[in-house]
Model the fold of this input.
Amino acid sequence: MSPSPTDIPNKLKPIAEELLDNSYARENLQEGAEKLREALERSRKRRVKPAKDRKLRKQIEAAIQALEEGTAALASGRRKPRRTGRKIVLGVLGLAVAGAAAVLATNEDLRNQVFGSAKALGDEIAGGSDDDRAAAEQNLS
Done:
Protein backbone atom coordinates (compact mmCIF):
# COMPACT_ATOMS: atom_id res chain seq x y z
CA MET A 1 0.00 0.00 0.00
CA SER A 2 1.57 3.26 -1.09
CA PRO A 3 1.53 6.30 1.17
CA SER A 4 -0.83 9.11 0.38
CA PRO A 5 0.69 12.31 -1.03
CA THR A 6 -0.06 14.15 2.21
CA ASP A 7 1.93 11.63 4.30
CA ILE A 8 5.15 11.96 2.28
CA PRO A 9 6.27 15.33 3.75
CA ASN A 10 5.63 14.06 7.28
CA LYS A 11 7.81 11.00 6.64
CA LEU A 12 10.60 12.96 4.96
CA LYS A 13 10.81 15.71 7.60
CA PRO A 14 12.82 13.65 10.20
CA ILE A 15 15.16 12.40 7.47
CA ALA A 16 15.77 15.94 6.19
CA GLU A 17 16.41 17.21 9.72
CA GLU A 18 18.88 14.41 10.38
CA LEU A 19 20.62 15.14 7.07
CA LEU A 20 21.00 18.79 8.05
CA ASP A 21 22.35 17.88 11.50
CA ASN A 22 24.60 14.95 10.57
CA SER A 23 27.63 16.30 8.70
CA TYR A 24 29.25 12.82 8.56
CA ALA A 25 26.31 11.39 6.62
CA ARG A 26 26.17 14.47 4.41
CA GLU A 27 29.90 14.24 3.58
CA ASN A 28 29.64 10.55 2.69
CA LEU A 29 26.60 11.07 0.48
CA GLN A 30 28.32 13.99 -1.24
CA GLU A 31 31.48 11.94 -1.79
CA GLY A 32 29.42 9.09 -3.24
CA ALA A 33 27.71 11.47 -5.66
CA GLU A 34 31.06 12.92 -6.75
CA LYS A 35 32.51 9.44 -7.34
CA LEU A 36 29.47 8.48 -9.41
CA ARG A 37 29.85 11.68 -11.43
CA GLU A 38 33.53 10.86 -12.07
CA ALA A 39 32.60 7.34 -13.10
CA LEU A 40 29.95 8.67 -15.48
CA GLU A 41 32.44 11.06 -17.08
CA ARG A 42 34.95 8.25 -17.51
CA SER A 43 32.37 5.90 -19.00
CA ARG A 44 31.48 8.49 -21.66
CA LYS A 45 35.00 8.44 -23.11
CA ARG A 46 35.24 6.62 -26.41
CA ARG A 47 38.36 4.62 -25.51
CA VAL A 48 36.86 3.23 -22.31
CA LYS A 49 35.06 -0.08 -22.42
CA PRO A 50 32.94 0.03 -19.26
CA ALA A 51 32.76 -3.74 -18.87
CA LYS A 52 36.56 -4.10 -18.79
CA ASP A 53 37.77 -0.81 -17.26
CA ARG A 54 39.28 -1.40 -13.80
CA LYS A 55 39.49 2.27 -12.85
CA LEU A 56 35.81 2.75 -13.65
CA ARG A 57 34.93 -0.30 -11.57
CA LYS A 58 36.96 1.04 -8.61
CA GLN A 59 35.26 4.43 -8.90
CA ILE A 60 31.83 2.80 -8.83
CA GLU A 61 32.78 0.58 -5.88
CA ALA A 62 34.07 3.61 -3.94
CA ALA A 63 30.87 5.49 -4.74
CA ILE A 64 28.70 2.61 -3.55
CA GLN A 65 30.73 2.28 -0.35
CA ALA A 66 30.45 6.01 0.40
CA LEU A 67 26.72 6.03 -0.33
CA GLU A 68 26.16 2.97 1.87
CA GLU A 69 28.09 4.57 4.74
CA GLY A 70 26.18 7.82 4.30
CA THR A 71 22.76 6.19 4.26
CA ALA A 72 23.66 3.97 7.24
CA ALA A 73 24.88 7.00 9.17
CA LEU A 74 21.73 8.87 8.25
CA ALA A 75 19.44 6.02 9.28
CA SER A 76 21.19 5.27 12.58
CA GLY A 77 22.28 8.79 13.53
CA ARG A 78 25.92 7.69 13.55
CA ARG A 79 28.48 10.50 13.68
CA LYS A 80 32.06 10.71 12.46
CA PRO A 81 34.29 8.51 14.62
CA ARG A 82 36.82 10.35 16.75
CA ARG A 83 40.50 9.45 16.68
CA THR A 84 41.47 10.38 20.19
CA GLY A 85 43.28 7.11 20.96
CA ARG A 86 46.11 7.84 18.53
CA LYS A 87 46.67 11.31 19.97
CA ILE A 88 46.79 9.97 23.52
CA VAL A 89 49.29 7.25 22.61
CA LEU A 90 51.53 9.73 20.79
CA GLY A 91 51.32 12.16 23.71
CA VAL A 92 52.28 9.49 26.25
CA LEU A 93 55.09 8.29 24.01
CA GLY A 94 56.39 11.84 23.64
CA LEU A 95 56.32 12.37 27.39
CA ALA A 96 58.20 9.09 27.95
CA VAL A 97 60.93 10.09 25.47
CA ALA A 98 61.22 13.55 27.02
CA GLY A 99 61.44 12.03 30.49
CA ALA A 100 64.14 9.57 29.42
CA ALA A 101 66.11 12.39 27.79
CA ALA A 102 65.84 14.49 30.95
CA VAL A 103 67.04 11.62 33.14
CA LEU A 104 69.99 10.93 30.83
CA ALA A 105 70.87 14.62 30.77
CA THR A 106 70.90 14.94 34.54
CA ASN A 107 72.38 11.58 35.61
CA GLU A 108 76.01 11.23 34.46
CA ASP A 109 76.44 7.64 35.72
CA LEU A 110 73.40 6.46 33.79
CA ARG A 111 74.51 8.39 30.71
CA ASN A 112 77.97 6.75 30.79
CA GLN A 113 76.38 3.35 31.31
CA VAL A 114 73.98 3.71 28.37
CA PHE A 115 76.37 5.33 25.91
CA GLY A 116 79.31 3.23 27.08
CA SER A 117 77.41 0.00 26.43
CA ALA A 118 76.35 1.34 23.04
CA LYS A 119 79.98 2.12 22.19
CA ALA A 120 81.08 -1.35 23.33
CA LEU A 121 78.35 -2.92 21.22
CA GLY A 122 79.46 -0.87 18.22
CA ASP A 123 83.05 -1.97 18.69
CA GLU A 124 81.94 -5.58 18.99
CA ILE A 125 79.95 -5.35 15.78
CA ALA A 126 82.81 -3.59 13.98
CA GLY A 127 85.17 -6.40 14.81
CA GLY A 128 86.52 -5.99 18.30
CA SER A 129 88.93 -3.60 19.98
CA ASP A 130 91.91 -1.71 18.51
CA ASP A 131 94.35 -4.27 19.96
CA ASP A 132 92.57 -7.10 18.13
CA ARG A 133 92.71 -5.16 14.84
CA ALA A 134 96.43 -4.41 15.25
CA ALA A 135 97.18 -8.10 15.93
CA ALA A 136 95.17 -9.10 12.90
CA GLU A 137 97.07 -6.63 10.69
CA GLN A 138 100.43 -7.99 11.92
CA ASN A 139 99.34 -11.54 11.11
CA LEU A 140 98.45 -10.48 7.56
CA SER A 141 101.81 -8.83 6.93
Observations:
- The chain is about 80% helix and 0% strand.
